[in-house]
Amino acid sequence: MKAIRFIGIKQPLELQEIPIPEIGARDILVNVKAAGICHSDAHYRAGVSPVRLIPLTLGHEVAGLVEKIGAQVTNVKVGERVCLHYNISCGDCYHCSTGNDQFCEKVLMLGHYTDGGFAEYISVPARNAIHLPDEIPFEQGATLMCASATALHALRKSRLKGGQRAAIFGVGGLGQSAVQLAKAFGALEVYAVDINEDKLKLAAQYGAIPVNGKKVDAVAEIKKLTNGKGVDVAIEMIGLRQTMKQAIQTAGVMGRVVIVGLSNQPLEIDTYNELLGNEVELIGSNDHHLQELPLLIEMARRNILDTSQFVTKTVPLDADAVNQVLDDLERFSGDVRTVIVPASNQAEA
C-alpha cells in the first residue's frame, strides 16, 4: 500500500510503498477514507515533539471503513463506518482504569509513536473504533478525532458554566470546535482571537465575538468588551508564548486558563498580578479520553457541533501536497483543516 512517511527531523515527508499491516485477534484493518492534517504533524516534522520511530507513517485523525476484523472482535463489523481514537492504550493500568487513558503506561499514539493514517490502510485495536453515523462525512469524522475531541476535553477541564464568558485564542480546527462547544456549555459570550480574518468570520457565524489580534491589542479589547472584568475561561490553542500570555492576562477573578497549544518555549508569568492576585488557575490540557468520543460524535450528528465548514481543503495521498500543507501550518497560514483523501477513495468519501 501507499503511505506518507516521516523520515527525519526537518526533512520532507516521503511517499513510500509498504506492506498492508497485519491484524491480531482483537484488531481491525481499516480502509482509510480520510486523514486530517493537524498542526501537531508539523511539530513532528520540525522536531518540536519527537516521534518514537523512524520511518513512521504520520496521521492521527482517521476515518474509514472496516476492511477486516480479528477472530475475537465483536464490537464492529466488516463494512462499518468508523473513526479512530488515536491513543492505543492497554486498558488495564491505573490511568486506563480511572478513565485517563491518554496517560496509559504503554500508550501508543497513532502517527506519533506508531504508524498512523496517512496511508491506504491502518490497523488498530477494535476498542479504538468509534461508530461514525451516516450523517457525518468521513472527512468531518476524521477531524472530530483530534481537533474537536481535544476542544471538548479542554472545555471540560475548564469547568465552564452557563452564563460565564470565554475567550478562545486560535480559531483553526480546534478553536472552531471550542467556540461552538463553549456556546453549547452555556457561555454567555465567547471571544474568538486570531489574526486570520476568514477564520474569525467563521467563528462569528458560530456566535463568537471576533477579535483580530493583528488590528487590536487582544487583551485590551477583551477587557473593554467585558467592562474590565475579563473572562471566566481562556483557552489557548496555538502554542505561542504571546498568545499564552494574552490568555492569562484576559482571565478575570477566579478565572481558569487552559493551555492546549504545543510549545517547547518557557512561559514567564507575573506571579502576583497575573496569577495570585485574582486566584487565576493555569491548567494544562492533554489530548482527550476515549470515553468522551461517543458524546462528541452524537453532538456532531445532532448538529450541536457543526463541522460542515471545518474541512476547507482536501488533498490526495501525495507527499508534495502534504508537505506544502505542513509548510503553511508552520507559518500559521494554513486552512481551518486540510484532509487527505486517498485517490482510490475520493469517489466514496
Topology (elements, then pairings):
Layout: E1 2-6, E2 14-17, E3 27-37, H1 39-46, E4 56-57, E5 61-69, E6 81-84, E7 87-88, H2 94-97, E8 108-109, E9 121-125, E10 129-131, H3 138-158, E11 165-169, H4 173-184, E12 189-194, H5 197-205, E13 209-212, H6 218-225, E14 231-236, H7 241-250, E15 251-259, H8 271-276, E16 281-284, H9 293-301, E17 311-315, H10 319-330, E18 337-340
Parallel strand pairs: 11-12, 11-14, 12-13, 14-15, 15-16, 17-18
Antiparallel strand pairs: 1-2, 1-4, 3-5, 3-9, 3-18, 5-6, 6-10, 7-8
Helix pairs in contact: 1-10, 3-4, 6-7
Report on this model:
The protein is α/β, with parallel strands linked by helices. It folds into two domains: 2-136 and 307-345, Alpha-Beta Complex (Quinone Oxidoreductase, Chain A, domain 1), CATH 3.90.180; 148-284, Rossmann fold. The chain has ten helices and 18 strands. Strands 3, 5, 6, 9, 10, 17 and 18 form a seven-stranded mixed β-sheet that branches. A six-stranded parallel β-sheet has the order 13-12-11-14-15-16, with helices on both faces. A three-stranded antiparallel β-sheet has the order 2-1-4, with no helix packed on it. Strand 14, helix 7 and strand 15 form a beta-alpha-beta unit. Helix 3 (138-158) packs across helix 4 and helix 6 runs parallel beside helix 7. The protein starts with a strand and ends in a 9-residue tail after the last strand.
